[in-house]
Amino acid sequence: MEVIKIINGLGDNQYLEATNDPSNPLRCVEKPEFICLFTQALEFAKVLEIVQKNLKELPGGGVQQKLAEEKLKNRYAHFTQQHSSWALMLTSLFLWILGYRGENSLQYMDAKMWPDFTTETFKTDEEIKIDIPKYNSRLKEITLEKTVTTNGLKLIAEHCPQLESIRFTGLSSISAEEYQSFLQSCPTIRKICLIYVKEEDEIAKILLQNCPQLTELTLEGQITDDILECVAKNCPLLTSISFAGSDKITLKAAQNLIEKCPKLNRLDAFFCTNISYNGNKQLQQLLKQRNSSVTL
Question: Using alpha carbons only, what angle is made at residue 110 by residues 109 and 112, rounded to the nearest 5 degrees?
């Protein structure tokens, strides 16, 4: 079978389909504009498997297989540009359920190929090293968990010039100075979420002092009044803040924050044990004076 010839002959509106004929397992077909996304993605997985099976044992098959896979990848990339990312997400989910989970079958159909995909979660430096270059600087929202270190932060700063939102969850091996360096390399960040990281108070102060453009902030852990004072001094553009569950924040500190952040329109003080019901009503009234709301 002349696999390369068939792939090279694909037109703009043509796709490959798998057949039941062992002597001619692939065929080129015309598809209308409203082609079923799921059907075509499923065919792509089958076609890629056939290409790999037919080329791997030929002389120089490794080179031919790589070329064929690259051409198929480009064909699929062209296809994805005509569809929204949410539909592609559903397609990937269906394929995963059906068992197309191998790296060779789905490496060209993962989120990193989708033009509009801008959100990702990383748990290790190795994940960042392998995956983040594939997004071609598109990522805008990132969550970092568990064992990510300063090496991972450096890679993100290097590859994510459009980063707008960062969520730090349970990190324990990154120093305050390393957080500072990261933020200085990412001036477009507008949203920060800090959840139970090591030396939380010190880290929070560093983040706030180096992110004057911050508009949304979430703090979970043993946050103190000093942190709210730091927010009031360094975040004039802040519109939303949550410090739910903190048992160290006082009513006075929360009131001071509202007074010094004129753009603030959302404050989540849920389960703050040092702020009574009447205290929450006072916070609500302060925000209502600016047509705002408070989550209690």
Answer: 115
Tens of pLDDT, residue by residue over 128-165, are 998 888 776 778 899 998 799 999 999 999 999 889 99
Return d(Cα 31, Cα 217) in angstroms, integer.
48
Task: Return the domain boundaries, the chain.
Answer: 3-109, 112-295
Strand-strand pairing, 26-30 and 14-18: antiparallel
CATH architecture of 112-295: Alpha-Beta Horseshoe (3.80)
Look at the block and give the residue holding tokens 């006082």: 250
Sheet holding 191-195: strands in order across? 119-122, 141-145, 165-169, 191-195, 216-220, 240-242, 266-268, 293-295
Handedness of CA 197, 203, 205, 206 (dihedral sign): negative
Spatial distance between the Cα atoms of 56 and 64, rounded to a whole number of angstroms: 8
What is the separation, in whole angstroms, between the first and last Cα of the chain?
A: 68
Reported as a single tens digit per residue, the pLDDT across 70-106 is 666 655 555 544 544 545 555 555 555 555 444 433 3
Q: Which of 224, 232, 240 is nearest to 261 (CA)?
A: 232
3-state secondary structure of 286: helix
- CB environment 199-221: b (16+ within 10 A), e (fewer): ebbebbbbbbebbeebbbbbbbb
